[in-house]
Design goal:
This protein is of the alpha/beta class and about 375 residues long. It is about 40% helix and about 15% strand. The chain has a six-stranded parallel beta sheet with strand order 3-2-1-4-5-6, sandwiched between helices. Strands 9-8-7-10-11-12 form a six-stranded parallel beta sheet, with helices on both faces. α3 packs parallel to α7, α5 crosses α6 and α8 packs across α11.
């Protein structure tokens, strides 16, 4: 492990120092790079709206992973969506440790031919994306003033906001100023800069068809028990207990999840027994958004679908443990959207590595009774 870190650090230092001939911009194009998944990309959309209002004539291109294409494909504030399976974000190990660097070289050559005026690296620690922009010869390179990213940038931005919606707005507002514009004077808060979801044609009808086939009428609640990092999950036995109480209170329970979460979801469905159905691996993202929109309440750990529920206006309860709600919590009206945590902190807070298993003490410390009480408060307010 230490040898791998040393080798990676040496390669990165060489990459930052290697001479690069700047490309001559072919057009006034701004390339935005965001390699992350659902929730982090949703957090970007308010900042994109501010950027478009400030620089209406600028061509804005957004590079995301193919997994995030449905999140931004209908966003009217972007001129072009580019997709690329960013190393480290595919959730698969590369066949060789050299693959990320070989891929970087090929993609940099492509971007050099494209020759945008500027690039913005929107993840604060994404040194690979910053190196890519430098290797492509993009003359203006903007990103967070992070030690892993700073050597590749021409304009590092010091971030002061807490939540990542605020930070995205800080980076793109700084970009606006650098490119000669003036950011909007409106506040960066959930009311003035809400999360957005732009519906897809036919998705509402497909969601209704799936719910009808499963025998789900009104009203229903959604439990989304999965999360991208196992350490963020809450025990299945407790989701069963919550589901049973929701059914006893007159709600049907719809369980959602991706293809790799089918077994988890099915175990919870069988534990609840009556009144619960599984839509795991049966919805596209646009259809999932409409399923969430129709719910009375959406509950789950810190995961992208919970933020999607916020974006479509459904009340949400987010269970937080090793990730920080001040950075990644629900961006919405606190009367409708709540982050629930036990308040535990340890030296590994923020470590969401795949090697960390389910069962973190900070998640186990959230009791079933606390979750049910919060659910009831949200349902009473709705």
């Amino acid at each position: 492990m230490l040898m791998r870190q040393f080798a990676r650090g040496t390669i990165r230092r060489l990459g930052a120092a290697w001479p690069v001939v700047p490309a001559i911009p072919a057009r006034a194009e701004l390339l935005l790079v965001r390699p992350d998944h659902l929730g982090d990309v949703l957090f970007l959309l308010p900042a994109l709206e501010r950027l478009r209002r400030a620089l209406p004539e600028l061509r804005i291109s957004l590079m995301v992973g193919p997994w995030s294409h449905p999140v931004v494909a209908r966003d009217p504030h972007v001129d072009e969506i580019l997709t690329f399976p960013f190393p480290g974000f595919t959730r698969e190990r590369p066949s060789s440790p050299f693959v990320p660097y070989l891929v970087l070289r090929r993609l940099a050559a492509h971007l050099r031919r494209r020759a945008p005026l500027a690039a913005v690296i929107l993840r604060d620690d994404h040194w690979w994306g910053a190196w890519l922009a430098r290797a492509a010869g993009i003359p203006i390179r903007i990103g967070a003033d992070h030690p892993a990213v700073r050597p590749y940038l021409t304009h590092p931005v010091r971030l002061t906001g807490s939540h990542w919606v605020e930070r995205n707005c800080e980076i793109l507002d700084a970009t606006t100023r650098l490119l000669g514009g003036q950011p909007p004077a409106t506040a960066v808060d959930p009311q003035c800069a809400p999360l957005r979801w732009y519906p897809w044609p036919g998705a509402e009808l497909e969601a209704r068809r799936l719910l009808d086939e499963a025998g789900v009428g009104e009203p229903y609640a959604v439990i989304h028990p999965g999360a991208g990092a196992p350490v963020k999950r809450w025990p299945a036995t407790r989701w069963i207990a919550v589901g049973r109480q929701l059914v006893a209170g007159g709600l049907q329970v719809v369980l959602t999840g991706g293809p790799d979460e089918r077994e988890l979801v099915e175990a919870i469905r069988q534990g609840i027994v009556e009144g619960a159905v599984s839509l795991a691996a049966r919805t596209t993202l646009p259809v999932l958004a409409e399923v969430l929109r129709g719910a009375r309440l959406v509950i789950g750990p810190d995961a992208g679908p919970l933020h999607l529920a916020v974006a479509v206006g459904t009340p949400t309860l987010h269970l937080f443990g090793p990730s920080q709600p001040e950075h990644f919590g629900p961006w919405g009206d606190p009367r409708k959207h709540r982050a629930l945590e036990a308040g535990w902190r340890c030296p590994r807070c923020g470590d969401l590595g795949p090697e960390r298993p389910e069962g973190a003490g900070c998640m186990l410390a959230i009791s079933t009774e606390q979750v049910l009480a919060a659910c009831q408060e949200l349902l009473d307010h709705a």
